[in-house]
């Protein structure tokens, strides 16, 4: 079983928005921050930047978009304060620990699969008590590809010792997580926490509203991946 981290296990968007708003004094810039971040993460995955440099360049670019001409010292200070705000704001969704406990009790091998910074994500998993659940943590910048590239999913399956057809991946992004996993031969599960799914769902993609629905989905739909029936 593969699980995305941000906005699947950890309420990343809420924490990120709070941290950013605290620093810039406004709440409407989160979409711009995400857009700038996505552009710079792509450079990391392509091998053109390391994560530490990406964080600084991303922040400088974001501030420039706001009309702030910041020197290197200001950018580094801004990024340091943002990370501290984030660290204080991380929260798990309430359905995470019960789901992970069930999966471990069922003997399911677990991998966390993320396109974000490795050190950053491993620290979050450790600080929030999640590291003990995972047999593997797959980081896009370390693998050299990012979701939805099939190589990302296949590398995780190879590490876990299973065929893609024996695995499922759950994440909050329809295309990046669910469709990407489906196209790589895994079961793709879209975690639609905000109930935005319409009737036009892509073929072969499953939808759950919360991780509390995942055990039943695994037992009823994915018997071939080796999840035992509930007693």
Series of H and E elements: EHHHHHEHEHHEHEEH
- In which range does the helix fraction lie? 40-55%
Spatial ordering of strands, largest sheet: 3-2-1-4-5-6
Please describe the biggest sheet, giving its number of strands, its sense, and whether it closes into a barrel.
Answer: 6 strands, parallel
Broad structural category:
alpha/beta
What's the total helix number? 10
Strand segment tally: 6
What Rg do the Cα atoms give? Answer: 18 Å
What's the average pLDDT?
Answer: 92
Shape: globular
How would you describe this structure to a colleague?
- The chain is α/β, with parallel strands linked by helices.
- The protein is built from 10 helices and 6 strands; from the N terminus they run E-H-H-H-H-H-E-H-E-H-H-E-H-E-E-H.
- It has a 6-stranded parallel β-sheet with strand order 3-2-1-4-5-6, with helices on both faces.
- Strand 4 (168-171), helix 9 (174-183) and strand 5 form a beta-alpha-beta unit.
- The chain starts with a strand and ends in a 10-residue tail after the last helix.
- The mean pLDDT is 92.
